[in-house]
Amino acid sequence: MNAVSALLDTAIALAAHAVPVLPLRAGKAPFGNCPACADNACGGRPNMKTAGPCRCPGVCHAWAAATTDPAVLTSPPWRAAWRRAVTVAYHPGAAGLTVVDLDDAAAVDWARATLPATRTVKTTRGEHWLYRGAMTSHNGARPGVDIKSTMSYARYLGPGTGTMTDLPDVVRALAVKVPPTVRPAPRPIAVPARSGGGQCPHRTPVFLERGIAMAEQRITEARGAIHATVYETFLAVLSTHGRCGCLTDTHIARLFTAAQAKGEAPRHCTDAWNNARTTLGL
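^ thats the sequence. predicted structure below, dont judge the formating
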């Protein structure tokens, strides 16, 4: 079996399991736009990043060209692409999957200490961790970590090992863009003196965790007036924890994730957070 046949056979096998596939050329790169689609002349998928109405028969729209149709995969334009291809890629989000791409050993160590175990696939320098569920893709989620799901593609490097688990909130939170200005600088808080020289209660992990969990619950259980609920919840959290430097980006990301799950846009979350800080003079 030659290399082209092997790639095409792999692609067809994946497509049969409802995994949309596409060929990649050297450098793990997708095929560029054909002349008819260059500069968005086709009316859709500009810069191969967003879906549009284009019905180009070729494979020139990166992740948006991924397909499960064997007739397309074996059509003349695609066969020409397979002859130039070096590997098979797939669109994780369209297959209901999320790939946590760990680029090096340090990132793998972080994942093993932080993320729930799931199916893993060895890569050249690290690992792919596959979860069941789609989310927003995010390159550079943290050092050495990319999230590949919707509007993205990942190389197919084999079935991997282990049992695939559901996409956890800790991975979803990696794609929440927290504005760099929202984390208050650590500063002392004026609290009444306590016998025994007790610490500020905000720095007690149980106290802080309970406060964040209650805020998440309040947002999640809201049945109406979501904008107002999000703002009031952010205001309550900041009034308690906003001046002592206890809040971390992880805590803030949890609140933003809860708000976005109720339909709030990232911009609205940012506005609500910044308005709450302004109200409190932070």
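Strands lie at 21-24, 87-90, 97-102, 119-122, 127-132, 138-142, 145-148, 154-155, 165-166.
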